[in-house]
User: Fold these one by one.
Assistant:
Number 1:
Amino acid sequence: MRPPIDPGLSVAAAAVAAATAYTFFQVASRIGASKARAGRLWLAGGAVVVGTGFWAAQLIALLALRLPAGQGIDPLLSVCALFSGVLGGALLLSVSSGPQPPLLQLLGIGFAAAAALCGVSLLDSPAAGLDPPAQFDTVSVLAAAGLTVLSCLLQLVLVFRLRPAESRLPAPVPVVAPLVAGLLQGGALLLGASAARIEPVSACAVAVCLPPDPLALGLAIAGGASMVLALAAVAARLDAERGTLTAQMLSLADAAIADVRREAAAKERAQDSLRDAEARHRVLLETVPDTIVLIDTDNVVRYANQSVWRMFGYRPEEIVGNKISMLQPERLRMAHRQAFQRYLEDDARRSEHSAIETMGLRGDGREFPIELSFVESNFNGRRVFAGFIRDTSARRERESKILRQGRIHALLSRINGEMLHTRSRHELLDRVCRIAIEQGQFRLAIVGLRDGQEIKPVALHGVDDFSIERNVVISLDPDGLGGDGPTAAALRAQTVRVCNDSAADIEPVAWRVAATRRGHRSVALFPLIVGGQLAGCLSLYASEPFFFGDDDVRLLNELARNVSYAMEFVARDEKLDYLAFYDPLTGLANRRLFGDRLNEFSQAARLAGQCMAVVLVDLEDFKSVNDTLGSGAGDSLLRAVATRLVRIGGNAQSVARLGADVFGLVLPQLKQASDFQAHWQAQIANSMSRSFKLHEQELRVSAKFGVALFPDDGDDADSLVRNAEAALKQAKHSGERLLFYSQEISKALNERLNLASQLRGALERKEFVLYYQPKVHAADGLISGAEALIRWNSPELGQVPPGRFVPLLEETGLVLEVGRWALIQAASDRKRWIEMGLATPRVAVNLSSVQLRSPDIVEVVRLVIDGIEESGGGLDLEITETILMTDVEQHIHKLKIVRDMGLSISIDDFGTGYSSLAYLAKLPINAVKIDRSFIVGMTESTDTMNIVSTIISLAHSMNLKVIAEGVESQEQLRFLKLLQCDQIQGYLFAKPLPPGDFEQLLRDGGRLALE
């Protein structure tokens, strides 16, 4: 039988179908009007909404059938029906979003969509789950299918006809036409539902059964579907209105831009294209280099052209809807908002155009200069603003380049003028740096000068804490630390080194971090070439990256060449002045400048009522350093001593080099004379007692100190230095390490000068005489030799002890002449004794350090023994151990020659020096003389006895004779005989004897009693 149809649900099904068709038209209009991503979203969402509407209408139509046995729902078939509806809706919407297809293609699409919608009915009907299933009237089903095809075709035609750009229909048509198409579809659904033939005995055969009276369920489905469709339609309508508003605002912006373009025609002469602006304005809008934005009173961007991507790195869609402040640095945003708010509140300025210079912020965080101008307009009663943003980086760079080159030209001119009046290199370089900051407006300027394989800063000016720059040292050694970098390589090649972005430089990371932290973004180093050699470099720092262009580098390199020329000329004048006042080795003041400074110090001390100390420092045995290690080591030692004294004095102004190994030191501002002793112990003594490191070896150098105090010992430079020298000389002669000047010292010095004066003529006046002290065999007392000892018999002073005048002989250099006389006299006395028939032993003559270092000592000895038949002329040489162990290699060479002449060589005072066993074996010696101090102490100390025993054993093992000097007691003699000492010399047997007494001793048999 044919079941009755519920009229209420029939109306509901038709209403849902009509609403679905209306929503379809609204969504289809948005798909065509929206851009790619939004269009795809509208297509997907619309297909779901429209398909759901068709499915809901079909389900309501089925529920309208009043079945006696009730209905059910097969979930799987119902979902398939829903999918068929979505597919049909997708077909209709996808076609409606593009251009209208040809008629045949349109018919094909309509039939395909109708088939999908018919599938909804064909799947929903079995979903009712009746048993036996319903039968359908063929005519009714075909009629329903025809109405569905008609509805689909009508909807497609209306979609293309109702488009805003093509519609010429009366106002009600866009609303009525979709409803008509929807009612056709609803009729088709009801017709298809009414075609069902139900058996009276049919019952629900599915799990999900519906209530016998489905009216409430149908109305609920209709209400839910209507709500979804209404929301979709409203959303489409609102989106359409928003698109209309945007189009209107774009039109307004286009008009505003056209106005601005017309106003700027006289300035840029680029507005010839405005005659056809209506046809080309959008192309111009998207291709102009300036960024154009449209903002509202809330500072929100409503439009941005494509230039925003090129200028700021944002796509237009990323800007639209956001605050315009996102294009500004954070620090400027608050000021912009406040200024914009004041503008909005100031009616007098509302029509005023403004242009400001400010900074923009790119998407990557970089700032750049921009020019911002805007025009206010009114859109639908709302205030909007068209903003025009221009990147002024290139313009500012051109302006900056012109200004920079102007400053550099002025810098060149001013420095060249300063060069004409500067005579000091330090002053020249200091002025160059200062003018570079003042005139050139650099951030930092440094001039470094070459010191060996390093370039060290000597002049610096600029805005910085200088904590690193003052200690910046560039190594030129490619194997040294930092010497393999590009800066060092450029300087070695004498070429310019430019770094226009310190953050990306290839120098070490530490340098990049330090430079960037201090704001140095660009650096240029220009070599300073003097005499064809690298003399230093000029370093200029700027805060802007890419500061140094090719023209700037060319001009600044010319400046560096001018500075190099000036340095060369100034160096000549400075060298003359320097040599006049400074010691070239240590860089300290010389005696002349020291005197000037000392007068200034004394004047200041006099005004302040303070004391002052003048200290002269003499390095002991400095010549041995030169002889042993070479003059280079000696120079290094002098420089090291100078450095240490400068540290003691506090600055180089108070230190001077007064002689080869003599330094002067001023200690001003002493409250009282006793303060010096504390200063001496705390600083001078401790500092000078530490070793010096020369050529990878430790060297300890002792020194003597002479001190004169202001004002007690003098009130001017001459008297203070003279008295300090007197104290120093007395310290050297007395063996004291430190002596203060006193009247006694002055007296002793005068006596010494008087003694030296008389000593100079003593040789001509024949006042010198040789005394002879015998050496005897320890075994039998037979005289085996004699030592010639010089004595001075002065008519005024009487017999002067050797300890008083022998050091003066060495100090004055008279020892060379007197030493030659001693050799000749000893040979003459011995020859006379032989001619008298006496058994004459060999005579030993002492050789001083001055004689041994003399280059003609070998010739002197040869001339003395020439003509004497006895081997070596019967003469021997005695040389002290300390003298012999300085410049050993040279001494070995000379002594070998002398020994080959037949002379025997003895080491005097053996044990008091620092003999090396390696050198001892190489020395051409025949005997060693044990120093008197060991002989005196061996009877009192077991250790000393062991030393003497060791010396004798060592000498005998090397085939050397051993002579003990200073023997004064029988106990000493007994021990020496037990130790098998070869020869003995001392007061136990005989004092040094005049020639006549020694001659008588020889006459008496040449033997001395041992008991």
Number 2:
Amino acid sequence: MTASTEATSNQQKFSILMLVIATIALAGACFLTNPSKFSQAHLDDNSMLKHFVSTFGLAGATGEGSAFPTLRPIEIRGLCFHVGAAALMLVLGAQLIARKDRPRLTIDDLYDLKRQFSGPYVYWALLLFISVVSSYSSDAGRDISLGGSLLRMLTFGWWLPLAIALRPKDAKRLSVVMTLIITLMTLFGIWYFYGRPDPRNRLWYPVGNELWFGACILPGIFIAAGGILAGLQRREKSEENAGQRIDLIIMGLIALIVCAFGLWLTKSRSAAAGLFAGGCFSLILLAPKKRRALVLLGAILIALAVVQLKVLPMLKHSAMGDRAHSVRSRLNHEWPYAITLWTQKVVGGHGEGGYTMLAGRFAREDQLSDPNAIAIDERVWVAEAHNEYLNLLSDVGLAGTIGFVGALIATLFWAVRYVDNRRDEPNEGVNRCLVIGLAGALVAVAFEEGASVGLRHPGLPPLFYTCWACLWAMVRDQRPLPAPPGDAKDYEERRLGSSTVRLGGAVAVIAGIGLGFVGIQDWRASRDQYEAGVSLRDGNFEKAIALADSSGNQLLDPMRRLVSRELALEARVQELIRRVRLAMNAKTPPTDEDLQFARQATIEAAALNKTAPRFLQVSKWQWQLALALRDAHWMRNEQAEAREYQQAYLESLNQCRIDEPFIIDYLFRLWGEVSEPIPQARFDWLRLWLRRNQIGEDPRFGLMLQQLATQVPGFKPVLEGAVAVAIQDAETDVESWKDPFAPETLRIAAAIANASGDSKRAIDYADTAAKMYASAGGRLFYGESAALLEEVNDMFVADPTADPKPALEILVRASQILNGPMPQTGDDALKVPLPREFGQARLGILLAAGREDEAKKQLEALMTDAMGPIETQLAFAYARIANQFVGHPKSAPLVAKWAARAEALDPKVLESTFAKLRLALSRGNDDAALAAAQHIIEAAPNRQEVFDALLQAEMEKPESGIWKVLRETHKDFPPSPLSAASQPAASALGVPDVSEMPKEKTESATHESGGPSEPRP
């Protein structure tokens, strides 16, 4: 065997080995999941689908979840990718070490910049260099950013071996295998889609997110189309396979149909944009050179028309039902954040993960202007810009972005040259068509990532970089080796020696070992992160701290590492709370060791807040930490320190309310903790909460509003002044509003007017608020829907027997704003049951109008299997409206009628008897009231709940004599609530005393923006 033959044989063996490794890793990255628990639908399933889901989910011994669960059940895909990258680098190193011939390169050739910049390698080197340098120089999160740099190197470790060592023949094979895997994955997802229907009605399993699934499908579509074109090519008669390849055509058609159908089911607009871009690029490659400019111009005009007619209107006039919130989130918020961060560090960026760490603080400020597009809600963080290129600009700056984009463009440039050079060669038709398919796929995913984040999550990266590497492997020979300059003998002497190649092989082996180590460490850290969460829920805080600290130092993905560090902070705070409670129970002061532990937690909280300002629930753990430290110092009789931490507690609690203005828990707690009335501040707190909530959504809001309106001095002029401004703002454009929360002012004024019996004014205020929201466009659509619902409730309170049609029309409109358009229109839409709170309002209106049959259909739409017989639920509905109007003297006959109907439907529904009790009290009929109360107490399954309700009735009519009789008859009847009138406001409102440690247990946030990120098998 000659040296040349031996080298070719070695290349073939190593190339085939790479093909096998890539195939295995791709299959694992496309199919495997590792959920902590399977869904109930899965556990109840008896079809073949359950067997496949369990198998690919790596089911544990109990079958209830994976044997290797992680916080995100898709981390196993990352492990497949990372181990595959390490294995490919090892094979590349082994191939270079085993190589005996000398490369046709000299040192001078390496300094030929024109040649180097014509290929993708130097751009990749630039990207990796900038990634490391910018991450190392990151201001606050160096270790977090360097983890992102290692992820970037793992990506390169996958791409490089396939790109430079895979033979063109094996590149074609790997492309076909990848298309087969994508097709099977799509079939599996379609099977799941129809086997277990999802309320979102979008294809997402097993990838875990419909956007990423759509991106994963794109390469399959284009390579399948390339295969069809290749099958249609006619070959010379001298060839072994003369004529057309029917097998390629049939297989390509099957893959194309399956993948196209799957893409349609994802309903991914970013994938649709990628499909259009890839298709246009493929057409440009197929078109003659003279007509390419015309194709490109047509594509640009179509794209501009779609943006103008479809995308831009969503920024102003679309609601949740149109999925416009995601468009607004990108164009109005996430993309400008990335640009802002980039302008701060133009050349090198903030380091890998810079956007993840720094953009969230902008979202905290903007969530009030567009709450449904950008609200944080503790569990969602702006971790990516939903645009890979803007993300790159903010993370690695202009230099790093040039590296990534330059490598792509260089590859596509040589793909175009390849297609053009082989246009007139019949024997190269198959390869040319496959190159067109691969190039189209590369462009499609590259464009799709302009509005998505798939490349930063497990699943898509191996598919994208395999497509890229296979394309380069097929076209790299178009880039000729440098011609020997001058004397051939001199050139031969200056060629690099085989030892240089072996040295490169040794470097590749070392790199492969290193990449394998960090990839496995990342997997182990993911497992530790999950176990830390389990230990935290089980109350084993010290174990949770150790595991969370470990994963927070070893995870590679910046967001995942930040989540682990927040998990560690939560565990530290909970452990401190446990220690302080134990000291309280033992009546012994906390030890110096406890305070040292608390100081360490304080340091960790400050460090995390510096690295990622206002990250997820950090402000929550900070006020709980300050509260625990305050009590600890009080117990140690260190009053100065206790007062200091009391102030820190209030400041942190207020910061938590600012960070999470739509979560009433923090607002309610702060409301009771602040001793000064501050009417304007309290008024503003309520208005901010209303921007994304409804007035009747939480009873605590009603308590706070009632106290503000009746007990806080100075509130009346504040409200009157705000209403006057709001009325003026209602006549102007939204951009000219003097008060950005004018609609919320009118909604609060409407609630107060309604409570005082002025229903007409309440309706006018609510209607004006709804119109103001509508004029603000899609970003405040939730407020418009809420205001309309409140207007309907005000109309119902004003006259429950009025013609229901106007109220029903408004309800339909409110529901459509939030849930999307209905197929019915006009009067037909008024007959359709509505969901959730809209259906509840509709139910009461129909019952009051005497349309019980329609009300029953509405109730059936609202009911679940666990709610019991429909007659019982109908009785509850009648009793509910009876109790709602029992305080209205003019509605007394209606209340009696509704209560009687409820009792007739189900006598066990005590709410109807409670309505009779309140009606009797309002009429001064103590005998009837006492009989009703005695019946309620004797029939009640839970006396405590009944006593609570009776105490509320006593607050309405304390002068009645039945309360003394009840306390004499029932010794366990609680004392009068009027005795609590002298209690502090916080206690009266039910807010925990400041010395009480928080008992709530909040799960650590695990999701980023962009929709669901986990498969839920």
Number 3:
Amino acid sequence: MMDDERQSTQYALQMTKDAYLILSDGTEFCGKSFGYEGATEGEVVFNTALTGYPESLTDPSYAGQILVFTYPLIGNYGVPSSMIESNGLSAFHESDHIHPKAIIVADYSEQFSHWNAQEGLAAWLKREGVIGITGIDTRALTQKLRDEGVMMGRIETHPLPLPVRGVSNKLQYYGSTNWVERVSCKEVIIYKPDMPADSDSSISAFHPSPKKVVLVDCGVKANIIRCLLRRGVEVIRVPWDYDFNQLDFDGLFLANGPGDPEQCGKTVEHIRAFLNSSVRPLMGICLGNQLLARAAGAKTYKLKYGHRSHNQPVRLVGTNRCFITSQNHGYAVDDSTLPDDWEPLFVNMNDGSNEGIRHKTLPWFSAQFHPEACGGPVDTEWLFDEFVARLNPDSPPALPNREGAVTPAAEVWPAYKVHSTHSLLGRAGEEAASVLLLGSGALKIGQAGEFDYSGSQALKALREEGIRTILINPNIATIQTSKDVADTVYFQPVTPELVERVIARERPGGILLSFGGQTALNCGVELYQRGVFEKYGVQVLGTPIQAIIDTEDRDLFVKRLDEIGVKTIKSEACENIESVRRAAAALGYPVILRAAYALGGLGSGFCDNEKELLVQAEEAFSFSSQVLVEKSLRGWKEIEYEVVRDRFDNCITVCNMENFDPLGIHTGESIVVAPSQTLTNSEYHKLRALAIKIIRHIGIVGECNVQYALDPHSEDYRVIEVNARLSRSSALASKATGYPLAFVAAKLGLGYGLFELKNTVTKTTSAFFEPALDYVVCKLPRWDLSKFHGVSHQLGSSMKSVGEVMAIGRTFEEAIQKGLRMIGQGMHGFVGNHDKKQNDEFHYSSLKQATDTRIFVLARALQMGYTIEQLHQQTQIDCWFLQKLRHIVMIDEQLQEYRHLADMATFMDPLELIEYLEAPEFVSLLREAKVYGFSDFQIARAIGLEGSMKMEDAGLLVRSWRKELGVLPVVNQIDTLAAEYPAQTNYLYLSYR
């Protein structure tokens, strides 16, 4: 890795040259150039994915296009190697080169961090001759493309020519070029499976020798071939216009590709000949779906702006089964023109467009989305199992039928049922059902206020259904106990005895246990075990009791995950101190102790030796009768996923989060960033798929939180825990994404499917979706440790924080600086603070132990010249986060070079001073400071105004300069879908461009 000075110089040099995007209607966007410098033109499209930029850039379906990434931070994890596997395919890319003509991002990360990174994105673009632009308002650009449709654009990285409009009007129409011909292979290529078929593969039981599949290469992605090879078939890859009917093969596969399907007339002729002469299985993907439809006699049309993201929801027509898919296409099938013997297979749940077709009687089907999903979710990879299984005419179909009675090959329907709203309404002759909701316990860290949001949302959802609500919550200082939120409120402790008395009096038809934190869960489990629910005929809505027990009893939890091959931390459940001692000795120090059924990590802690172990064990047993001794993975990354499942087995992950601090600090104590910033597409979707696998196996209905430890040097992982309830993280995820998790979870507990609910932000799209963010969120904990004498400020696995703040920005630096101003510690951001302890001797070793003020210790260390590598060694914080903090310090240092402005402001006429400040270098620096989260106060302090005036006046003076120089904030709207669909709610934040 480069040292800090070389990285800083390189970053500054590559971001100084202006670059322009000129759309065909004359609209101009100006940014900074990175990557290759030159000029190009192409169709401008946007992609709303949060990860997977190397995979997207090597996707042939982007040929001839200018690709806009809506997620603002691109380049974080660098670019993986171009290593070629034994089968001739790229190990980490989808083809052998970049296909878009240019890319546009809001905030390019020149400095990257990942164990598998070979080079930075800019270096890769330069080598491939691809232009990159950063600093453009991609939200405004996306909104324009959304409202007016995709259009052609031209990019200039040289001085902008004067007759701009004349140039833009002459741009060639994208659909007039046969892009498939340009990206397709030029000769036949044969791929042999390099290993025996997996035992789980549907083909292995039927074919001892590989079946042959012809793959028509219209711009195929490498992972499509990998998916086929993994299932034990031989792949014969042929050019787009090759007459494959002359070959000997068992099945036909139509690959994805770019451009207008009308340009592929030769391919359509060959497919039509196949349909007229064969009953061999056929599967198509993306462009393959369109070509199959045209061969069958249907029509295709161009979408307004296409589907290019990793979160497109589709529904299997005629069933309750829904899937999250990865897509990249600008054309669609008009399924109203399908012949009578064909029918729609999938439909897009956002715009109603066709997402797949199938023949009613013959083994031919296709999907508009990408089941191979690289990048993207692998939720529909079972379609490959379906296709391969059909290569044997005796194999049973794996594709779900119209009633949903037959499931995909790799899935199992849950054995239990959840009662619907209708089974509650009118119960026992009542005019309306009543539901009891257990709120949180009394005021206590990790217990009370943080669950107020969840409980309030649940009560709102119940009231919307006309259900009478009963709330038990001893805390009067909450929203949920306010007038008219619940119909009846009991200000009583949430204990089994008192809850039973309320049940006996109110006779509710159902009870919700997941909205009051650990206290409510523990109480519900005990009531169940006592037979109270059965005695009074109370239905547990949402997640079944046994699923709660399976996740709360850590010994059972490990066994349940072992059943599905999901890794957990090596551990042993103990009932006494002696067994704890033996377990720790067997595992080897360091270890961590966790108390079962404990909230906020109470009783947990890391132990480096037996002396620490005995002290921690005594504390842990004071909270629980069961203590889990686990092998310590301190230093690994900590990642969380908020997962939702309905009773129809439809699953989504609403938000993923990454802890700024490595494993070893309770999530409630750590700075948390959403979405994750240092995970590749492979890591992100591997953990996402595991989270869905876990929630299905355990049987959760509603929402849960899955926490992982991820090895920072490989893709190895361990599941830390699963919270089968709304948690502190759930409230953060809801506010960070705009997705009302608790509201939706309550509806699902009543028996709704996700597809039956609306996205409350857009008001038009389905609640079955995964939010796409075009901003970054930072959560920072708040402490009141200074109010207590003798309390330790060291942080660990037991929670001490009493609250948290959430900040939203277009850059990580902006979000974290906003948050640091709000935590109540008297700070103004990451820099620009006058800490009363600032003159104390700095101890390098103080970085190693996390405290409530370590973030400011990091600031001081960076200002003193410590390198990123030195700080990483002490803290194990990912280098990308440290590099971003270093960027803040660099801007502060550049501002300090203008300290002469403080003297000039005292004697110079204001108008003359403004003329001086209009120098492009200062305006650019001032704008950069605001983009990266500096307040006017911080800027005033950096340039030395504090010495000549009160800081309040100094901040106002900087503000007046900004306004004169046109450095003004903009109001951004949170819409859950990165501006792909307009929002109907007033959820806003301020940012700078």
